[in-house]
Design brief:
By secondary structure, the chain is of the alpha+beta class. Among the domains are: about 440-585, no CATH class; about 710-825, Gamma-adaptin ear (GAE) domain (Immunoglobulin-like, Sandwich), CATH 2.60.40. Helices cover about 50% and strands about 10% of the residues. A hairpin with a 2-residue loop joins strand 13 (about 795-805) and strand 14. It is extended, with a radius of gyration of 40 Å. Belongs to the adaptor complexes large subunit family. Its main location: cytoplasm. Keywords: Coated pit, Cytoplasm, Cytoplasmic vesicle, Golgi apparatus, Membrane, Protein transport, Transport.
């Protein structure tokens, strides 16, 4: 068989290929020749063939068929064969293939070889791809080499030990004795790898970290090495751009950061050397900047002195003036992390940070924007907002949403006056109205409503802002709302803050009608405009007939929302005209009521108003029929009293029939609690006769243990069980816990349980634990019912179940009459 071509010739041939297909053809032809050579057990050219195979692997072609050949080369006695064999093993093998275990014995033999270069090959391979099994078997040999006097082997053994610790952390203590003398080595390679090993041990084990801090006195040793590096003269072997071994300096600074974190003594010991590094390092080259950056991170992470922290922030401030964009980005990111702890020191560089907003690099611009918002406070709010508003005008669209949100939050927190606050938010809406958050409109409306003295000024500013420009929809919505609320102030020209403008009622209506017919107006904006026009029917005197015509036109709009509003407003004009002025009177001041969460603000007909939470006493007279009575009809009969909901939900007066319901003032004794009240609605007190004093003492009586449970419902795989408890404070109250289980193969979703009892009882349904009943009885839904039975009558209950199962909506009614006597006697 002819001798295969050399690696150099193969590379030259492949590079002559003009197309990808031609290259693939050459590779396939050479792979076939290599396979043939492997089958013939040709030991002469095995090394050459594996080398070519590794080159093909680097080009992205499959070379797995050469794995066993690599093992044969490793077992060879020739150094050239071993070198290629170990290189192939590192490239073609990993711990996912069982083949790698076959080389464990070869590596062990080579670790004990008489030639240091063979030992070095074995250490490199084990440190690169050794599995946890190999590391356990060979850790002893690595530990021996770590103690040898040969610096070439010690540095490789230290790196191999790092890999062993990562794979098998419990072997860490084996290397502890060998680390004692590592830092006394003069060789920089050994020092570097030793610091890497110590860093790995400290990061992975708090016990090791404490040991090195207290027993080994590691910090003074590192300080001594670092000081020697700084003070040493020119050394051509380690010099990089005039700095002695910057790689070792960076590694030592990282290890000092770990040792000094949350430790006063260690931090105190390294303060001086950190100050020396910060002041003596040259900043004209990137090498010096890298060391300074690591120094800053170390200073900020340990318990350093305040003067040292100021020095670190000043270094970052100098970074901001660097022409290299990467250095500026690093400085902004670091300042953003430290601004909360060293706010005043960072403030000194505010002008430089603001200048970064004008940078062409988008990543620097974003970091500068985030840092600028972090620097805003009550003293600089006006100046910072001026810069940020200028940035908002000129920045790319992807920045506008975040910038607008940041300005809103800062203005709300630090606004020097209400006028300034309103002007700032209006400026944002004018500049980037399409990018603001959804809550910007209701928040601004609330701010305007609460600023009573600013109503005339605000409505005049908003009117001028939208003249002929409806592109910023949130601004148009706020303007329409304010014109509807304060249109009389606009027409009267009562503005004192600036020169009033002369506007007629017809001109105001022209603007609102233009909003209604504009192609740029969304459905929500048109709703705001139509509601504003309706409100003006009570503010204006000369244009009521025109308003009636506009409203009647939209009664046949194809937009269902507008049509509903127009129909309701027409009904106000025709049937309830005597109530129109009262219903459309000016909004009261909105007060934020925080209830363990955000303020409850609801939208009503394009207006924003607080959601009052109150309960009405049940009326004494006969009640009109309603949706609640329909449920009672379903449950059957007139002797059933509906449940008392746990917490009545506050419903927004939407554009549907709710407004007409308000006009009719329909009141009910209660409504079926088909679903739990929203979590954000605060709980309110219940009628005293039902839960009076229930939570002031232990809730349940010991006799509850003797009440047997019952199966209230079992059908179509759904089973409802009742368990009972009696109140300790009110014997007339029975607490029933329902448990719903599902034995079918599919979940039952949207499960709702409703119940009703005779009028001599009072019933309360609490929130269910879930709305999904898991299949195969793998879980249950629980819900609590509290029943007041003052006359000790036999308990009866009708239940209604609704749920979705197998894609169908299911509904069923049942009556429960088998309550045990202990539950009601």
């Amino acid at each position: 068989m002819p001798a295969p071509i050399r690696l150099r010739e193969l590379i030259r041939t492949i590079r002559t290929a003009r197309t990808q297909a031609e290259e693939r053809e050459m590779i396939q032809k050479e792979c076939a020749a290599i396979r043939s050579s492997f089958r013939e057990e040709d030991n002469t050219y095995r090394c050459r063939n594996v080398a070519k195979l590794l080159y093909m692997h680097m080009l992205g072609y499959p070379a797995h068929f050469g794995q066993l050949e690599c093992l044969k080369l490793i077992a060879s006695q020739k150094f050239t064969d071993k070198r290629i064999g170990y290189l192939g093993a590192m490239l073609l093998l990993d711990e996912r293939q069982d083949v790698h275990l076959l080389m464990t014995n070869c590596i062990k033999n080579d670790l004990n070889h008489s030639t240091q270069f063979v030992q070095g090959l074995a250490l490199c391979t084990l440190g690169c791809m050794g599995s946890s099994e190999m590391c356990r078997d060979l850790a002893g040999e690595v530990e021996k080499l770590l103690k040898t006097s040969n610096s070439y082997l010690r540095k490789k053994a230290a790196l191999c030990a790092v890999h062993v610790i990562r794979k098998v952390p419990e072997l860490m203590e084996m290397f502890l004795p060998a680390t004692k003398n590592l830092l006394n080595e003069k060789n920089h390679g050994v020092l570097h790898t030793s610091v890497v090993l110590l860093t790995e041990m400290c990061e992975r084990s708090p016990d090791m970290l404490a040991h090195f801090r207290k027993n080994e006195k590691l910090v003074p040793q590192l300080v001594r090495i670092l000081k020697n590096l700084i003070m040493s003269g020119y050394s051509p072997e380690h010099d990089v751009s005039g700095i002695s071994d910057p790689f070792l300096q960076v590694r030592i600074l990282r290890l000092l950061r770990i040792l000094g974190r949350n430790d006063d003594d260690s931090s105190e010991a390294m303060n001086d050397i950190l100050a020396q590094v910060a002041t003596n390092t040259e900043t004209s080259k990137n090498v010096g900047n890298a060391i300074l950056y690591e120094t800053v991170l170390t200073i900020m992470d340990i318990k350093s002195e305040s003067g040292l922290r100021v020095l670190a922030i000043n270094i970052l401030g100098r970074f901001l003036l660097n022409n290299d964009k990467n250095i500026r980005y690093v400085a902004l990111t670091s300042l953003l992390k430290t601004v909360q702890t060293d706010h005043n020191a960072v403030q000194r560089h505010r002008s430089t940070i603001v200048d970064c907003l004008k940078d062409l690099d988008v990543s620097i611009k974003r970091r500068a924007m985030e840092l600028s918002f972090a620097l805003v406070n009550g003293n600089n709010i006006r100046g910072m907002m001026k810069e940020l508003l200028y940035f908002l005008d000129s920045c790319e669209p992807e920045f506008k949403a975040d910038c607008a949100s940041g300005i809103f939050l800062a203005a709300e927190k630090y606004a020097p006056s209400k006028r300034w606050h309103i002007d700032t938010i209006m400026r944002v809406l004018t500049t980037a109205g399409s990018y603001v958050r959804d809550d910007a409109v209701p928040n601004l409306i609330q701010l305007i409503t609460n600023s009573v003295e600013m109503h005339a000024y605000t409505v005049q500013r908003l009117y001028k802002a939208i003249l002929g420009d409806y592109s910023q929809q949130p601004l148009v919505q706020v303007a329409a709302w304010c014109i509807g609320e304060y249109g009389d102030l606009l027409v009267s020209g009562q503005c004192e803050e600036e020169e009033p403008i002369q506007v007629t009622e017809d001109e105001v209506l022209d603007i609102l009608e233009s909003v209604l017919i504009s192609n740029m107006s969304t459905s929500v904006t048109r709703g705001y405009a139509l509601t504003a026009i309706m409100k003006l029917s009570t503010r204006f005197t000369c244009t009521v007939n025109r308003i009636k015509k506009v409203v009647s036109i939209y009664g046949s709009s194809i937009d269902v929302e507008l049509q509903q509003r127009a129909v309701e407003y027409n009904a106000l004009f025709k049937k309830y005209d005597h109530m129109r002025s009262a219903l459309l009177e000016r909004m009261p001041v909105m007060e934020k009521v925080t209830t363990n969460g955000p303020t409850e603000i609801v939208q009503t007909n394009g207006e924003t108003e607080p959601a009052p939470l109150e309960t009405k006493p049940p009326p004494s007279g006969p009640q009109p029929t309603s949706q609640a009575n329909d449920l009672l009809d379903l449950l059957g009969g007139n002797d059933i009293t509906p449940v008392i909901p746990t917490a009545p939900t506050s419903k927004p007066a939407s554009a549907g029939g709710e407004l007409l319901d308000l006009l009719g003032d329909i009141n009910l004794t209660g409504a079926p609690a088909a679903a739990p009240a929203p979590a954000s609605v605060p709980q309110i007190s219940q009628p005293p006769f039902l839960l009076d004093g229930l939570s002031s003492q232990p809730l349940f009586n010991d006799i509850a243990a003797g009440i047997p449970s019952i199966t209230a419902y079992s059908k179509n795989g759904l089973k409802i069980e009742f368990t009972f408890e009696r109140s300790n404070t009110n014997p007339s109250v029975t607490v029933i816990t329902i448990q719903a289980s599902n034995s079918t193969e599919l979940d039952m979703t949207d499960f709702v349980f409703q119940a009703a009892v005779p009028k001599t009882f009072q019933l309360q349904l609490l929130s269910p634990s879930s709305s999904i009943v898991p299949a195969f009885n793998t879980g249950t839904i629980t819900q609590v019912i509290k029943v007041l039975n003052p006359q000790k009558q036999q308990l009866r209950m009708r239940i209604k179940l609704t749920y979705n199962h197998k894609g169908s909506a299911m509904q069923d009614l049942a009556e429960v009459n088998n309550f045990p006597p202990q539950s009601w006697q």
